[in-house]
Design a protein that fits this description.
Elements: E1 2-6, H1 11-24, E2 28-30, H2 41-53, E3 59-64, H3 68-74, E4 82-84, H4 88-96, E5 102-106, H5 112-124, H6 131-143
Parallel strand pairs: 1-2, 1-3, 3-5, 4-5
Helix pairs in contact: 1-5, 2-3, 4-5
The structure holds D-ribose.
D-ribose binds near residues 66 and 69.
Length: about 150
């Protein structure tokens, strides 16, 4: 199950992603926003990401105007590793090396065609583990207030 969230700047991209996931038979839960009316992205990022850290969903896909604000908010949720991506290589390697569990994109930055490619590679790529696990663990240590 994929958790989807967007503000007004990412609303149309989120709708395009829903259609794409429907076509691929991938289940998702939409945490809003549900129109192009102006809303604040932090609350939506939090709600969407809590569905991932709570175990209801496997990964989150978040959209705002730039992808940046919603990724900043997402990364404040404990256990979330959100990556704001606008290129294929980053969307692939943030899974391989960072085990990212949230993909963030800017509806005013990437076109729908590219965004759907990023969604596909993000969802299809597995974490490599190995030396990268140690680095993920260090991120969690920072999150827990430990000094590395
Ligand atoms: C909303 O206008 C815009 O600021 C927001 O979608 C996002 O780009 C923030 O980072």
């Amino acid at each position: 199950m994929i958790a989807l969230g967007a503000d007004h700047g990412g609303y149309e991209l989120k709708e395009a992603i829903k259609k794409h996931l429907d076509e691929k038979g991938i289940a998702y839960k939409d945490f809003g926003t549900y129109s192009s009316d102006s809303v604040d992205y932090a609350k939506i990022a939090q709600k969407t990401c809590l569905a991932v850290t709570g175990g209801e969903c496997d990964k989150a896909i978040l959209c705002c105007g730039t992808g940046i604000g919603i990724s900043m908010a997402a990364n404040k949720v404990k256990g979330i590793r959100a990556a704001c991506c606008s290129d294929y290589f980053s969307a692939k390697y943030t899974r391989l090396h960072n085990d990212a569990n949230a993909l963030c994109m800017g509806g005013r930055v990437v076109g729908v065609g590219l965004a759907l490619e990023l969604v596909d590679v993000f969802l299809e790529t597995e974490f490599e583990g190995g030396r990268h696990q140690r680095r993920i663990d260090q991120i969690a240590q920072i999150e827990n207030g430990e000094i590395l």
